[in-house]
Amino acid sequence: MSKIDLSKYKIDESDGVFTFKNENTTLGFVRFNSIGEVEYIFVNPLFRKQGLATKLLKLVKDKTRKEITLQEPISPLGSKLLNSLKRWK
Q: Can you give the pLDDT at residue 23?
């Protein structure tokens, strides 16, 4: 699957949340706090495996200017993301 072209989508930011969306749906979002801790991240299943989670995490890192950490995952996918994040740093 090819990488998604985010120039065609809107990026919203409000109260510690970045959201990628188009006119029809939300592609994904990340909720974070001021110390760079990711509280929740979600990518719409139709848009997974296209680098969207990585782009969301980069937005958080750029905004907070901190190393990103994840809160304890609540799902198997969260655990998988935590492992991939360790490689991403």
A: 86
Residue 54 lies in a domain: yes
Number of CB atoms found within 10 A of residue 48's CB: 14
Residue 66 sits in a domain whose CATH number is 3.40.630.30
- Global pTM? 0.75
At residue 67, what are phi and psi to the nearest 5 degrees?
A: -70, 135
| Burial group, residue 66, by CB count within 10 angstroms (0-12, 13-18, 19+) | middle
Tens of pLDDT, residues 15-50: 899 999 988 899 999 999 988 889 888 999 998 888
3-state secondary structure of 30: strand
Count up the domains in the chain and report the number.
Answer: 1
